[in-house]
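We modelled the chain as a single entity of 392 amino acids. Its sequence is:
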Amino acid sequence: MDTASQKGGIRRGLILSFGALMMIFNGLIYAWSIFVAPLESAFGWNRGQTSLVFTLSMSVSIFGQIAGGYGASCGRQGPMLRLAAILLTLGFIWASVINSLPPLYVSYGILCGFAVGISYNTVISTVLSHFPERTGFASGILLMAFGLGSLVLGSATTSLILHYGWRTAFRALAIGFGAVTFAGSLIVVPADRKVEEEGSSADPGPRDMIREGPYAKFFIWAVLMSSTGLLILGHAAPYAADLGASVELAALSAGFISIFNGISRLIFGHLYDRRGHVTVMFLTCTLYIIATAGLVAAYFAGSLWILFPSYAMLGLAYGGGPVTVSTYIKERYGDGHYGVNLGITNLNIVVASFIGPLLAGMLRSTWQSYLPAFVLMFMFVSVGLRTRSASP
């Protein structure tokens, strides 16, 4: 290997590594549940009210992804990441001084959610431009880091909340997110434009992609899978507490999901490269069925011993969706409009965020139980299996 190739390999490794670090921070968006109990205790809010924060952050993040996609298509990756750094810093600082729900919805839900979306899409589209021959592998690494974010940073944040309070935890996140995202704007840069633009003129844009018949079936499958996962992901720690877990053990249970969520993304990325999207989509549905059955069994048995393996299966299943979406869109529709096409496809999470965590919170408040949410999970996966069989 010549010197130029070695330098190129080192540069790609650095970009992938720092991109993974940024995705770890972005993945903290899934750890919202660790703030639920402290905020409800401090202000007397109910589960439906606090669930809306998670729904907003997940929904708005997708519009941030679309903005990041357009920025990447214009070669503005650096400025977009610096904008994300500013919004994240402001959002978390504002969240640290709130005393009512509306400012929390705007600060954590909208500002932080939008900024995470910008960072997420910009990092993925930029890093993958360096790995045209190993898209599934690179995508799996990044999405594994994203999935592990709520574990890696969630545990540290939980410790901050327990020892110093949730306001201090938000301030610490403001510093961490701002510094890492700003540094990323200088390190995670796109590949040579000649390589990046090769063949882009023939790649379908968002309008052509949406008009394609098979795309609608794929999008429906993505909505169903995201809804199934988000029904419990935003309530992982509270559900564990319902079964008798302590605050620390409940936080650990949410982290348990993150471990398997992260691992599965790397596994599914490798599996996608070898077997394609049909196999990955079927396996995702199958794992969701096993996970949902376990959650119901844990409910009737009141057993954390059943809950933890069920959370492991849930994490494995949830990891299949993002990997399938990010790799399939690049494989089928090319690089030319990848950032925008990915952001638009990830609108499935906006729909899923309202169907999933918000509906689960409302059902929990009404029935004082998550069992009705588990019934919905079975229904979604059943329809997803039929949709998968008709997918392109």
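As a brief sanity check on the tokenised model: The chain has a mean pLDDT of 84. Residues 15-389 form a domain with the Growth Hormone; Chain: A; fold (CATH 1.20.1250.20).
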